[in-house]
Design a protein that fits this description.
single chain, 6-stranded mixed beta sheet, 3-stranded antiparallel beta sheet
């Protein structure tokens, strides 16, 4: 379907803006980022800052304004993507997807539907290769024992792991997670983070969009701070996850503490 060259960035965006709504309001402003294959980043910012819009930009659900000076949208060094091929490069996990997938289909059917971009299988033709790949992913995520259970009868944390399996089943280049720990209790959050660390160690790129510092796993070394539709800082995690820049980002006086490899807001 596509080929990529080693050493070519996964994402290379320059001066991308997106307008939406009847008044063409700018929801993304001058976005620029270069992300290497295998690199992990966290996109951190308050609710409504544009994190989900950035994800929609990556997957071409939103299109950037054309004709802007210095405009460039490249994925794996290419600008001319068939939108379906482009979306096949990325696996997505989000609250919105979980609400769509909360139907009376089993965990295995949910995972296999990742091959077809559907929810459930309907009349899809599942091959032996697809089935073997799905079983391998379930085994990797340690949820194979739940494969026959219907998604609505799982806990939120269990269902979220099946969304990850669905996102990974077609072997994407990047895994994109939009506020992935929303709705998870402490135990499920811990398990989710452990699973994400395991995935990050496989070489797949991880893009984590969150407003919670403690969602950022140790394998993510780079953080992009986002506010009002733009990137306001981009750099090493240990430089940006500090009290002053995070206070500016959220408009509050905050104290940041690091406990082990994780960062937390104290006040």
């Amino acid at each position: 379907m596509f080929k990529s060259n080693t050493g070519v960035p996964l994402l290379e965006f320059r001066n991308l803006s997106v307008a939406r709504g009847e008044e063409d309001k700018l929801i993304l402003r001058g976005i620029g980022i270069k992300m290497e294959q295998g690199e992990h980043i966290a996109l951190l910012g308050p609710n409504g800052c544009g994190k989900s819009s950035f994800i929609n930009l990556v997957t071409r659900e939103y299109y950037p304004l054309s004709g802007v000076q210095g405009y460039s949208f490249k994925v794996l060094g290419r600008e001319d993507w068939n939108v379906f091929d482009l979306r096949y490069l990325f696996g997505i996990v989000s609250d919105r997807l979980q609400s769509v997938c909360s139907r009376d289909v089993t965990g295995m059917e949910t995972v296999l539907s990742g091959f077809f971009g559907s929810v459930g299988l309907y009349r899809a033709r599942v091959t032996a290769r697809m089935l073997a790949r799905a079983r391998a992913i379930l085994d990797f995520l340690e949820i194979e024992h739940l494969a026959g259970r219907e998604i609505p009868r799982m806990s939120t944390g269990e269902a979220r792991l099946f969304l990850i399996a669905r996102a990974l089943v077609h072997d994407p280049r990047g895994l994109i997670l939009d506020e992935p720990c929303n709705g998870l209790d402490l135990h499920a959050t811990r398990r989710f983070r452990d699973t994400l660390r395991k995935i990050a160690g496989t070489g797949i790129s991880v893009i984590l969009a969150t407003h919670n510092l403690h969602d950022i796993i140790p394998e993510i070394k780079r953080v992009v701070l986002m506010k009002e539709g733009g990137f306001i800082a981009d750099g090493p995690k240990d430089k940006l996850l500090r009290s002053r820049p995070i206070s500016r980002l959220f408009g509050l006086r905050l104290t940041i503490k690091k406990t082990g490899p994780y960062y937390y807001v104290l006040s």
